[in-house]
What does this fold into?
Amino acid sequence: MDLELAALAGQAASTVVNGMATTGWEQVQRAVGELWRRAQPGGADGVVGDLNHVRDEVLAARRSRNGGAEEALVSEWQLRLRRLLADHPELVPATEQLINEVRAAGRPKDFRAHHITMEAHASDNGQITMAGHDVNITRRR
It folds into this structure.
């Protein structure tokens, strides 16, 4: 169960941090605040306040293309969420709901993977097309 909680916490952390940079960031605050209120009512306001700082940090990291800073924020929130879920396993369904709500609140194009590594080698007249999202290719002859 610990591995499952860690995986869920990781997914939730990534969703929360990504969501902070989307149009649905207020939904992130509300959803995380509600999750914390269910477990630690007295600490929820502090967590919501922390999210304001996280949003500023995520936006700055994205502006400067600093993936390492964003990864650090995901790791920080993964630890916080893992601890919360370890102490309150009854919150697993609510955490899964949080993930779904936050993803629905942000535009799909706002969510991005933390790591995309692509490598290709072409020889002779070979052509390579690689993309992390939609691609339209039109060849004119």
About this structure: The mean pLDDT is 83. The longest helix spans residues 67-87.
